[in-house]
Amino acid sequence: xxxxxxxxxxxxxxxxxxxxxxxxxxxxxxxxxxxxAIDILRENGSAKAAKKSARIAAEGLAEYAIxxxxxxxxxxxxETDFVSSNDKFxxxxxxxxxxxxxxxxxxxxxxxxxPMGDGTIQDAITSLTAVIGEKLTLRRFQLVTxxxxxxxxxxxxxxxxxxxxxxxxxxxxxxxxxxxxxxxxINPEYLDKDSVPADELKRQTEVFTKETEKEGxxxxxxxxxVKGRVNKYLSEICLVDQPYVKNDDQTVAEYAKSVNDxxxxxxxxxxxxxGIEKRQEDFAAEVAEQMN
Length: 292
Hints:
By secondary structure, this protein is an alpha+beta fold. The chain is 48% helix and 22% strand.
């Protein structure tokens, strides 16, 4: 059996990020061959990653990438916000984003099979899951293509807790970025009134009508009051009609028009973990369980 040196363990740790004892065991099993030891760690990692499949990954990072007329918005999740600040995790997110923009997969299944490094995106996620010790997940992505007369603007809040991407016709990249900042902060639901589904608009109109009638307003003015309330509701949920966050004396549409006659044509917003029910941790219970 080959003698395993501290230098070998150190090199393996630096190359894989795995724990010291895991590296030593892998080197012993590989008879001192570092390349074989890396394979062993990856194989072990696959087993470890499978055991983590039931865990909730609701933290992580949102990221974007832009290349010419193409852009992508991505969310990759981890179990804790501590991991989201890990340099290896940040690099994984950046590499995934680059791969998705380059390969333009049709769906999540194709995305996980997309090439990245020496393997696929799924391989990279599985490998880092083993190293970090947490479940990591490519949750979602969306590709966007713009026309030549349009510009992209993107913004990340708090290092990637929220990412927004805006497409403008006319305008400028700076204006589009400013509107992306607005999107990140205000979280509009729709681009404009025409984007609101008819059934939702009908439902809201019925709600406002019943509310107004209960207030005892004269029947002949109820439709006018309801129309005003519906318009106010739409101005709150539609991006272009919202008061611009940097100057509430103008709407987002008015700000866009003030910059080279710009018009917002599309927006995307990812907030990490939105819609995921986060597990409530009981630290004392967890410690007690580990001691049993």
